[in-house]
Specification:
Blueprint (H helix, E strand, L loop, with lengths): L5 E11 L4 H9 L9 E6 L5 E9 L2 H11 L5 H6 L1 H4 L5 E7 H5 L8 E8 L6 H22 L1
Helix pairs in contact: 2-6
InterPro entries: PAB1135-like, Ribosomal_uL5_dom_sf
Pfam families: RNA_binding
C-alpha cells in the first residue's frame, strides 16, 4: 500500500436551526470511515439561533485513504486535479468545499456545506511539492477506489 502524503484531513460542517441534525451528521459521516468519531459543538448564532458544528480530523493512513477515495468520486475529478495549484496554499494546505446535500445522498461533489482542509506533506515545505504530492495521492486513491468497484 503506497504512502499517504497527508498529515491530516479536517472536515467541518454547520447544522443550522432549519436543518435536521441527523441528516447533517449523516452527510459528513458519508465521507468518513465507519464508526469514525465526530465532534459536535453547539453554538448560538448572531440572532440567537442554534448552530451545531460537526467536525472530524482524520490522521491515520487508511482513514485518510478512505476520505481521498471519496474525493475520487467527484464527477469532474480531472478538473479537480487541474485546480490543485489554486486549491493548495503556500502553507501546503489543500482546501475545498463539498456539497452537503449530495453528501447526504452518499455522493461526493464540489459545492457548499462541508469544508475540507488537509495538510499536505512536502519536503521541502513548498507549494509546488505539496501540489504534486496531493495530485499523486488523489490519483492513487482513485485507482484504489476503482479496484474496489
Amino acid at each position: 500500500m503506497p504512502r499517504v502524503p497527508f498529515h491530516y484531513i479536517d472536515l467541518r460542517t454547520f447544522c443550522y436551526e432549519t436543518e435536521d441534525e441527523k441528516r447533517v451528521e449523516a452527510a459528513i459521516r458519508s465521507l468518513l470511515p465507519e464508526e469514525f468519531e465526530i465532534e459536535r459543538i453547539e453554538n448560538t448564532g448572531h440572532h440567537g439561533d442554534r448552530i451545531i458544528v460537526f467536525s472530524a480530523r482524520v490522521e491515520r493512513a487508511n482513514e485518510v485513504r478512505h476520505v481521498l477515495s471519496k474525493l475520487s468520486d467527484i464527477q469532474d475529478f480531472e478538473g479537480l486535479l487541474d485546480e490543485l495549484d489554486e486549491r493548495v496554499t503556500e502553507n501546503c494546505e489543500l482546501f475545498m468545499r463539498l456539497d452537503k446535500q449530495a453528501a447526504f445522498r452518499d455522493e461526493t461533489r464540489l459545492g457548499d456545506g462541508i469544508t475540507f482542509r488537509a495538510k499536505v506533506e512536502a519536503y521541502p515545505a513548498k507549494k509546488d511539492a505539496a501540489v504534486e504530492n496531493a495530485r499523486e495521492a488523489l490519483l492513487q486513491a482513485s485507482e484504489l477506489d476503482a479496484e474496489d468497484d
